[in-house]
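Possible regression after last week's pipeline update?

I re-ran a chain I had predicted before the update to compare outputs. Posting the input and the new output here so someone can diff against the archived version. Not blocking, just want to make sure nothing changed silently.
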Amino acid sequence: LFLTQRCIQSFMYLLATCTRDLHTVSWLDSFVKPIIINNYWEEDEDLKPGSEDSFLEGDKRLGSKLLNYHGLSALNTTMYPTWDSFFNELLEQPDSVLM
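New output (post-update):
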């Protein structure tokens, strides 16, 4: 599941940085429902999406829990027990229009 999580995070990073598609990043974050435990990114309440801080803290401003998470085991193994279960569930989702 680590590779699946990394794949999703890399895709979200590309969406946020190259295409600036923050709506899809937000949708993916709400779909994945990551399990975030002991994440140092969550400790700082001052940084909110859109705040003006250093480049190092740039990922934090996006407001995505999964994209900001640096570690293992963010995917819920009850919801996604196998590496492909996330993708199968994603393919079964109805079409969405994001604006």
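Follow-up from reviewer: compared with the archived run. The helical segments are 2-17, 22-32, 65-68, 85-92. Marking as no regression found.
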